[in-house]
Fold this sequence. Notes:
The complex is a heterodimer of chains A (about 110) and B (about 110). Chain A is mostly beta strands and about 110 residues long. Chain A contains no helices and eleven strands. In chain A, β6 and β7 form a beta hairpin. Chain B has strands spanning about 5, 10-15, 20-25, 30-40, 40-50, 55, 65-70, 75-80, 85-95, 105, 110-114. The relative contact order of chain B is 0.33. The chains are: A mainly beta (about 110), B mainly beta (about 110).
Amino acid sequence: RKEVEQDPGPFNVPEGATVAFNCTYSNSASQSFFWYRQDCRKEPKLLMSVYSSGNEDGRFTAQLNRASQYISLLIRDSKLSDSATYLCVVKNSGYSTLTFGKGTMLLVSP
Amino acid sequence: DVKVTQSSRYLVKRTGEKVFLECVQDMDHENMFWYRQDPGLGLRLIYFSYDVKMKEKGDIPEGYSVSREKKERFSLILESASTNQTSMYLCASTLDRPSNQPQHFGDGTRLSIL
């Protein structure tokens, strides 16, 4: 079983739509969780951390379900500038190493 | 803001050359990382370091070595470059504590081995 799994997409949505991405992880000892955003040919950039109680940052909402080992990202009112690949990232126990999903591509069209 | 600087955005080298990729961070982070990213394979950890002169193998260390002589600088070395090492190389850094710190990435180096 892959350590962090994501649907690669692409998700094609119109501007203004709401879109949700899911991610599952296999290591139950994982400690911290993040969503990164990566634009084409650029480096990954932190979008938001994911907290156990769920958290929101503007149009973005992240949820964590430790029992099901499942993380989600909800984007409301999609903008053209949201077009990117979204990486689900899990921090392992011990050293500060991260395990990255392969990413979900989002394409927002006018 | 955290600044992670990689020495080159684009690099072209020949098979068999010894290649050095440099990474510098300005936030006094203890932990530094080298990844490569390839289409369909995502980011894969090559090596990381949690302190000066300390290094740990990641998932794909073969064909690579690293050096961390100063806290702010982490170098990736391709001992004898091969065409299958053509890739995007990303350096990252993070604080050791608190434990939920994210990693911050440099702009990446696109390395082509001919």
